[in-house]
Amino acid sequence: MMQKNPDWWRGAVIYQVYPRSFFDSNGDGIGDLPGVTAKLDYIAGLNVDAIWLSPFFTSPMKDFGYDVSDYRGVDPIFGTLDDFDTLTAEAHKRGLKIMIDQVLSHSSDQHAWFKESRASRDNPKADWYVWAEAREDGTPPNNWLSVFGGSAWAWDSRRRQYYLHNFLASQPDLNFHNPALQDQMLSEVRFWLDRGVDGFRLDAINFCFHDPQLRNNPPNDAVQEASIGVRKENPYAYQHHKYDKTQPENLAFLKRLRALLDDYPGTTTVGEIGDDNSLQTMADYTSDGDKLHMAYSFDLLTEQNSAAFIKRTVETIEDKLEDGWPCWAIGNHDVARVASRWKADSPEQMKLFMIMMLSLRGSACIYQGEELGLSEAELEFEDLVDPYGISFWPEYKGRDGCRTPMAWVAQATNAGFSNAKPWLPVYTEHLSAAVDVQDQQETSVLQAYREFLGWRRQQPVLFTGDIRFHESPADTLLFSRKNAQGEYLVALNFTGDTVSLELPAGASAIDNAPSCLSGQWQGSSVTLPAYGAGIAAV
Hints:
Mean pLDDT: 94
Shape: globular
Strand order of the largest sheet: 11-10-9-5-2-1-13-12
Distance between the termini: 25 Å
């Protein structure tokens, strides 16, 4: 059903693979594309619809692939273009779509374009990056800050100008005010569409344009931890990012991008939105069916996870999105693993988080290892490789703790990830949650994911139904999903106690419901055990 539907992405579940840490096929300690191909049966067995591959492009790896030096090349540590084509073909055989990360807003300083751009002020690519004169005293053009700390401007002695970098100094920002640059970036996207990819996860997509007047950002009135770089130990949090990103010109470019994808029916985009007003930006970027297909923000990627917070976030998005489409995520490669961030100390809590996310209106992304309930790895400073964590240690330990290798076989060398020393250490506490261990446990988190996702595939109301919240006791959620084919009530208990919820309408148990749905439905009420969930037909 999903594979023949050009709107397959509505309600789809996307499994994020971080290739470096998934499976090493050639014994060099780094995961690779053939390693992903080797594990496709595992991914397909989860009953997900698509795979999102984090960057595998040619790169000096200063930011582990998010610094691209060749948008059309596969870095040798990950394999070859032929390996990518094989992965795509094998995934399609199993009914899995392939989505790839596209980093459009910036490149590596090792990219040929930047080398040419920095060579002089009058070469053909001189204006492909964001260059600006120093102020009279030699200081940077304005007060913009980098997500990774310090000024967002780096001095180049050859051009005797500053260039903009919203992230590392080795990640110069491309100048999307230049029409030729826009054309080139669309050409890079087309290259992968022609190779058969089904969609793109668009990294930092609201960072493409900057204010051409280079006006200073005003101070931030209140620092609220969320979004990209917004942490209280990071000075980036102390500005209101009015001029360095999320500019109105971005909407016209997104329309050009959507027009390109419309030439390839059945393809899709999901944009990463890191912004001061991320929910409004999500709405703006996904409205009217002529820009992004869907977007996700960092609102559920913070430490806040109360039932009230989730309800407020979802209702705010629903109110703003109108005809747009959300994509939910509670974990990814940039934030601490959800089991630790949301302080889950039992498998039941991890199952509850899974049922919650997969029952909301929208699509969803699952980050590798989430289905195992993996916790955040605790690493020594000497083991860190993430420049973000190294800069802000020890107040912020960076992103390495969520990027450690997958645990496949508890008793195998390096948990079955690699025969060589891994690029990050395997976390010892993950061994008890390895795939081979959970395969043997009927009530494991992994089995719950497989069962619930398999059941969900057969529930059209969970793909496209509207959502409406109902009153319920503190630390619980009760909401309806409804479309022309039926209506479900979803009840969730975020407490460690048994609770009973009064229902707004009569409900009856669903035949063949997944075993992780532990709610007991009776007439006008449902009883939920600690961290229990129930879904019933109305």
